[in-house]
Design goal:
It contains 14 helices and 33 strands. By secondary structure, the chain is of the alpha+beta class. The longest helix has 15 residues. The structure holds guanosine-5'-triphosphate.
Length: 598
Amino acid sequence: VEQDKIRNFCIIAHIDHGKSTLADRFIQYSHIVEDRQFREQMLDSMDIERERGITIKSQTVNLPYTAEDGNTYVFNLVDTPGHVDFSYEVSRAIYSCEGALLLIDATQGVEAQTLANMYLALEHDLEILPVINKIDLPAADIEGVKEQIEHELGLDPDDAVCISAKTGKNVEELFEHIVKKIPAPSGDLEAAPKALIFDSHYDPYRGVVLYVRVFEGEIKEGDTMLLMSSGASYEIEEVGHLRLKGIPQKSLRAGEIGYVIAGVKTIRDIRVGDTITIKEKPASQPLPGFKEVKPVVYSSIFPVDSNQYEELGKALEKLVLNDASLVYEKTSSVALGFGFKCGFLGLLHLEVVQERLEREFDLAVVFTAPSVQYRITQKDGTIITIETPDEYPDVTKIEKVEEPYIKAIIITPNEYVGGIMNLCMEKRGVQTSLLYLDKKRVELIYEMPLAEVLFDFYDRLKSISRGYASFDYDLIGLRETNLVKLDILVNGKPVDALSQLVFKDNAASRARAICKKLREEIPRHQFKIPIQGAVGSQIIARETISALRKDVTAKCYGGDITRKRKLLEKQKEGKKRMKMVGDVEVPQRAFLSALKAS
Ligand code: GTP
């Protein structure tokens, strides 16, 4: 394909405004899959994405389109996630595109991530095409949304294309718009090659697959590729286009997006954001790459079966290939043995990592209480930063503790303002602004501790506003706080994996919630099990699991040996998901659900 026939663009939007549905329409119109193979949410290839109905990973697809001018164009479309935890995926997608379709739900209007994602696209000088979606719905308010496009986004509302991604209405018109409005890529075809690795994944048959955007020159099969940050080199086995599956090509040229397979043995050589060049004709300077992501939540992961520690390490290494925002290092715990301390972009990100470890790598894992990063000034003047309760120093040595604060931006229909203000207050928020965007919509800005939004803030915001309020945040620095370390004792023994750092006033209620949850989750044993919450030596919450009276197999009288065996086997199966804490068997899921209790 000639460079001037390529259009690279992403679809960005607030969550649920219809990105994946629109991507489906693009795929259908281009006929790259047969109708009988077509399924909804084509680009959400992970099971978790399909079950939850959300996009977690950006996905690129190469689509041919024959335009009204008679020419055949190639669209490289990148579907991006909408949830705030995955905005890093959006920011990377943006690097490989010249344009962005900014999708806005005609019944919801401009929301928090509409703005946040638009700013990301503007930072990279993308051509932004506003698209109003869901016009088939009776509640669609096209004129109202056009006004918002003009006043809140500062874009030209006359440029907006009104579509229904569901019925396909006006989608072809949008294709023509893309051809005309989004600039073709530029880049010298003869120059020393430069390609940006924007994503990667591990394929059990082919090894590491790199997803690249070529900015300069050409890379082809048989070339020796050079990874510019590590200097490692590999022979390229295959390059190609991404059409849901890889379509091998002779080469990838400046302006194109595609994949590269090069028999990479050492996964650690690969870094998303790195530049590939060719040994025979090396570029002198790498591309700028991506901004480093900083995790906001930390938690440690342990294998339920301690023998799987090494396997867990290998799984994380492979997962990081496909999830560059995940960071990890080795750690250990008294209760749980060897594991990894990980940094995540949010609680949903943490849950996704847990599910992927279980589904893609068949590993049962336990997570410790998610925590933010605290800065502690000690009496001797030294300053430390900590992310886990076990790093918490002796209280007598502490001079002051600071915790990260965020600026939370909430956009909501006005009838929910009261409820949301109460929620923010409960979460130690301080209001800094309340602005009527129009007659019905209000923008609230709060400063509040990041730790408070980690747990159930987002869910509660959604339930208070019946799903209508939207939320985005920025970190704004550290503020002094009153922190304590809450320990949980099971059968008299502190379980370090359940300890957490909490704001002093929240300690008692958090402790009660956790103890209650554990009482529900831990099965009865032959003996009575006290579960306690403690700060220092002071017990602040207590629950008791009463003892089991009978042996479960006692019911099966002597003769029925198969039944007895079945029952024992079933128990054994269940035990695989149990973690021994002293004499007590704690189910794996108890850890996360206890920590989510509040
Ligand atoms: P995330 O990837 O999770 O951010 O969501 P998304 O933006 O990809 O939204 P998705 O395509 O999953 O659509 C969300 C919901 O809106 C789904 O239930 C779609 O069926 C519905 N939807 C999308 N487009 C339209 C439309 O044009 N009309 C109607 N009526 N519903 C639509």
